């Protein structure tokens, strides 16, 4: 009986992949889908590049910020925090993880976007405007907003994995460093972090996967313009956002299938990222000596 | 609990411990130990489990403080310097003392060479060539050079248990410690590896003061010049029962408790 | 007292200690960076929400554009209904699969199922929406309906199944095996003692999983966009588009009129209160520490 239900669970997983494929018609555009930039439903032209660009850039920038922050939090929780602080801080970080995407979007739209439009954006373009990524007028809704909000949303993912990884580092490695007169930071940098390197990378990849798929918060702050700019102060678009915005307006089949194809890409990318990440994390919890973590 | 007036030998004392009491929070693990450890000799600490031997050892290089709520009262002077003086940085103390642990703990993410070099690199005062020379010198002093000279770049995990422990010794002496503290260094090793370490200790003591905690009485009688015997009191605190030249302790112990332990009646 | 053997307060030592303090201070900064937006968001929502919350809000449906008043009753009911459907589907499937994974851990089938669950948990929710669209909405599978509350419920179910599987499995793993061994020694068949002894002892943990799933389902927006579409009017029929709190937050947030914004803030407040309550309850009442999702 239980086995039968377990099988159902299995079927679900596999079913997905098949359905995605069947509902898709890639025949129309073939591979050029991925590097064309024109997205014109009226003229029946679909190129996904702006969306791919937007997703990749916003996610990478977000991870570049969330990675160190998440790892920093993990270090704080595992190495620094006194017993009494661990539980509350851990709780707060988890709370961050459970705020719905649309609520992040709401806050982003009404608090962060105006602030970027009036303060951060102009600030960046005045001081660092010689750099191409900070050029131009700031509209508030921008790649920058999307990256910032993704950063906040992804921090808990990275922090949670990193914390587990760091906790699994055996104490004798720490003692070895301390006994030779290393400072606490030197202990972390030379012994603890390298030991958990694989798992931490896995955590970052999990975060990346999450950032790729984030829909609501992003679409509310990114401006939803399918254009590619070098400046992150300009608006943009992502794969998830375009699906959310245009799916129900897709009046004819080709349009719909183009959107579904984007969805397929999202699915495959997050599948691969998740797979790699889980392998890395799983490997660390087994430890270099092959012992299984209790 | 009795106190024995310490016989001061001709040998200078490397470590002078006065009325040392170690606490974990409210629990007193070691009480009022006074001891003088002679320089360039091997001093063994023996006694049944739970008598605070490890705690005592770790308070000699302030590793005891790594545990939350740990503190000490009393003084520990190494070569005349009170290591618990608030003006002194604890990391300095640890750098100039060395500790070998029960489970060999080479740094797993580093190669053999890097394991020995790490102490030197942290200080960043030596150049590449000097570090290489020092690493070789330390590995030779630890009787490990011939076995690893061709595989310095390999991970430390490629070595056997006994080799790993000697690697840890090499790593420790790289920073020229004043005192070498060994916490049951051979209990995880096979008899042959154990013997190698004991031979090594015999050589090392020409240059270093060694304090070793051991469960193995034969090891103490073989390798140590002086021996201290710890016991546990009714309040579960460890204390010093007897201390003297190893030969005296084992052939004519003064305290009946020492005698019971040595003859196997207890512990 | 000579300090002959101790290195003098040399430049290196001082610098090393300084670096250590600095870097560790950075980690504290990181922690603050994470905690601040959280408190900021919660605080901001609290202020906005309380400002706009009134009884109207819960009892009325949205008013026509431009009119004052109106509430999100349809959204609240819709969210409850669709989350309910989701739980109805996901709880049996998820919990039973979780039981299977925990009790037959070495079974090769278990490895595959665990893998499939991991895959499922990583799928972006909008992709789940596409999937449910293609199998339910497009072919009008449910009572001939296109966009429907039912489809929304199914999409939510798919999203929360992995959560239930994971929490159930983890909580069952914590049950000491002595219980199982004792029952087995008495000759009770495995499926029997699993259901009558092991599972009840883990009930608290499983309930936690259900609550976490509920909180997640209530907050999801993207999949609902593609399956139930949303509705400005009150509707409890499953074969029609249904409103949801999360959808309303979205539509009203980007709407150009002030009244809509008010509703969006208040709805967000309600939603986040729900999520907060569930999190606090599971953490402190059921005393379950962090579940790895």
Task: Please characterize this protein's 3D structure.
The complex is a heterotrimer of chains A (294), B (267) and C (293). Chain A has 294 residues and is mainly alpha-helical. Helices cover 70% and strands 1% of the residues of chain A. Chain A is globular and about 70 Å long. Chain B has a domain at 13-103 and 180-262: P-loop containing nucleotide triphosphate hydrolases (Rossmann fold). In chain B, the strands form two sheets. A six-stranded mixed sheet of chain B has the order 6-7-8-3-9-10. A four-stranded antiparallel sheet of chain B has the order 2-1-4-5. In chain B, helix 3 crosses helix 4, helix 3 (112-123) packs parallel to helix 6 (161-173) and helix 6 (161-173) packs parallel to helix 7. Chain C is mainly alpha-helical and 293 residues long. Chain C has helices at 11-52, 55-59, 73-103, 108-122, 125-137, 149-174, 177-185, 190-201, 203-219, 222-227, 245-253, 258-285. Chain C is flat, with a radius of gyration of 25 Å. The chains are: A mainly alpha (294), B alpha/beta (267), C mainly alpha (293). At the A-C interface, helix 1, helix 2, helix 3, helix 4 and helix 5 of A face helix 1, helix 3, helix 4, helix 5 and helix 6 of C.
């Amino acid at each position: 009986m239980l086995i039968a239900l377990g099988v159902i669970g299995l079927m679900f997983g596999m079913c997905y992949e098949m359905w995605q494929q069947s509902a898709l018609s890639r025949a129309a555009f073939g591979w050029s889908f991925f590097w064309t930039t024109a997205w014109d439903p009226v003229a029946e032209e679909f190129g996904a590049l702006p969306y791919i660009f937007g997703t990749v850039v916003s996610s990478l920038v977000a991870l570049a910020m969330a990675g160190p922050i998440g790892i920093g939090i993990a270090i704080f929780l595992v190495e620094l925090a006194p017993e009494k602080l661990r539980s509350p801080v851990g709780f707060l970080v988890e709370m961050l993880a459970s705020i719905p995407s649309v609520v992040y979007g709401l806050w982003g739209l009404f608090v962060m976007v105006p602030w970027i439009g009036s303060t951060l954006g102009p600030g960046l373009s005045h001081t660092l405007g010689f750099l191409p990524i900070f050029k131009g007028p700031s509209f508030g809704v921008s790649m920058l907003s999307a990256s910032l909000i993704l950063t906040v949303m992804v921090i808990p993912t990275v922090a949670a994995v990193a914390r587990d990884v760091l906790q699994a580092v055996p104490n004798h490695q720490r003692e070895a460093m301390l006994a030779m007169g290393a400072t606490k930071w030197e202990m972390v940098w030379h012994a603890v972090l390298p030991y958990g390197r694989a798992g931490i990378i896995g955590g970052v990849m999990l975060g990346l996967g999450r950032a790729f798929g984030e829909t609501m918060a992003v679409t509310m702050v990114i401006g939803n313009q399918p254009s590619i700019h070098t400046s992150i102060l300009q608006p943009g678009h992502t794969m998830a956002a375009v699906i959310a915005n245009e799916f129900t307006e897709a009046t004819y089949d080709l349009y719909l299938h183009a959107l579904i194809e984007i969805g397929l890409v999202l699915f495959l990318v997050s599948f691969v990222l998740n797979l790699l990440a889980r392998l890395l994390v799983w490997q660390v919890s087994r430890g270099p000596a092959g012992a299984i973590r209790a | 609990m009795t106190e024995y007036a310490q016989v001061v030998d001709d040998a200078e004392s490397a470590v002078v411990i006065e009325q040392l009491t170690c606490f974990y929070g409210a629990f007193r693990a070691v009480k009022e130990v006074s001891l003088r450890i002679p320089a360039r000799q091997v001093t063994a600490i023996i006694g049944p489990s739970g008598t605070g031997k490890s705690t005592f050892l770790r308070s000699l290089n302030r590793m005891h403080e790594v545990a939350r709520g740990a503190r000490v009262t009393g003084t520990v002077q190494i070569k005349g310097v009170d290591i618990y003086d608030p003006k002194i940085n604890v990391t300095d103390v640890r750098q100039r003392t060395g500790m070998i642990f029960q489970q060999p703990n080479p740094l797993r993410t580093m190669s053999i060479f890097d394991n020995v070099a790490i102490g030197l690199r942290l200080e960043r005062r030596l150049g590449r060539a000097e570090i290489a020379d020092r690493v070789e010198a330390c590995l030779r002093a630890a009787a490990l050079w011939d076995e690893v000279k061709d595989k310095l770049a390999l991970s430390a995990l490629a070595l056997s248990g006994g080799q790993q422990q000697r690697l840890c010794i090499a790593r420790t002496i790289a920073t020229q410690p004043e005192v070498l503290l060994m916490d049951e260094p051979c209990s995880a090793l096979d008899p042959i590896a154990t013997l190698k370490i004991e031979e090594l200790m015999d050589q090392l003591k020409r240059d270093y003061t060694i304090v070793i905690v051991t469960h193995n009485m034969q090891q103490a009688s073989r390798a140590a010049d002086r021996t201290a015997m710890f016991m546990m009191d009714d309040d579960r605190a460890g204390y010093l029962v007897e201390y003297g030249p190893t030969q005296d302790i084992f052939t004519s112990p003064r305290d009946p408790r020492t005698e019971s332990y040595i003859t196997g009646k207890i512990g | 007292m000579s300090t002959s053997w101790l290195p003098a307060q040399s430049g290196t030592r001082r610098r090393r200690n300084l670096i250590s303090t600095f870097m560790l201070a950075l980690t504290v900064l990181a922690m603050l960076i994470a905690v601040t937006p959280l408190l900021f968001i919660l605080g901001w929502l609290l202020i906005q929400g309380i400002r706009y919350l009134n009884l109207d809000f819960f009892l009325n449906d949205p008013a026509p554009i431009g009119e004052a008043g109106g509430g999100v009753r349809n959204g609240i009911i819709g969210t409850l209904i669709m989350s309910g459907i989701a739980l109805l589907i996901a709880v049996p499937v998820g919990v039973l699969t979780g039981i299977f994974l925990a009790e037959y851990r070495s079974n090769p089938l278990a490895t595959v199922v665990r893998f499939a669950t991991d895959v499922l948990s990583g799928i972006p929710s909008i992709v789940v929406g596409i999937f449910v669209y293609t199998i339910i909405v497009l072919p009008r599978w449910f009572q001939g309906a296109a966009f429907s509350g039912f489809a929304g419920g199914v999409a939510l179910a798919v999203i929360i199944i992995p959560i239930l599987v994971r929490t159930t499995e983890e909580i069952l793993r914590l049950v000491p095996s002595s219980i199982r061994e004792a029952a087995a020694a008495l000759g009770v068949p495995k499926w029997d003692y699993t259901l009558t002894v092991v599972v009840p002892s883990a009930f608290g943990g499983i309930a936690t999983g259900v609550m976490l799933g509920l909180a997640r389902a209530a907050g999801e927006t993207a999949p609902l966009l593609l399956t139930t579409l949303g509705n400005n009017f009150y509707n409890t029929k499953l074969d029609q588009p249904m409103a949801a709190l999360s959808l309303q937050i979205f539509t009203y947030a980007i709407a150009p009129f002030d009244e809509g914004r008010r509703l969006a803030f208040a709805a967000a407040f309600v939603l986040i209160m729900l999520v907060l309550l569930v999190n606090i309850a599971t953490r402190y009442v059921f005393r379950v520490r962090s579940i790895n999702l």
